Amino acid sequence: MYSGTVANFTSRPSRIVQQRKIIFLKSMAPNNLGTPRASIEAPDIDTFIRDGFLRIDCAFSLDTAAAAREILWRDSGCDPQDPSTWTKPVIRLNDYPQQPFREAANTPTLHNAFDALVGNGRWLPRNSLGTFPIRFPHADDPGDTGWHVDASFPPDPPTDNYLQWQINISSKGRALLMLFLFSDVGENDAPTRIRVASHLTVARLLAPAGDQGMSMIEISTAAASATQNAKEVAATGVAGTVYLCHPFLLHAAQPHRGHTPRFMAQPPLAPHVPFQLTRADADYSPVEQAIRLALDLS
Question: Is residue 9 included in any domain, yes or no?
Answer without folding.
Answer: no
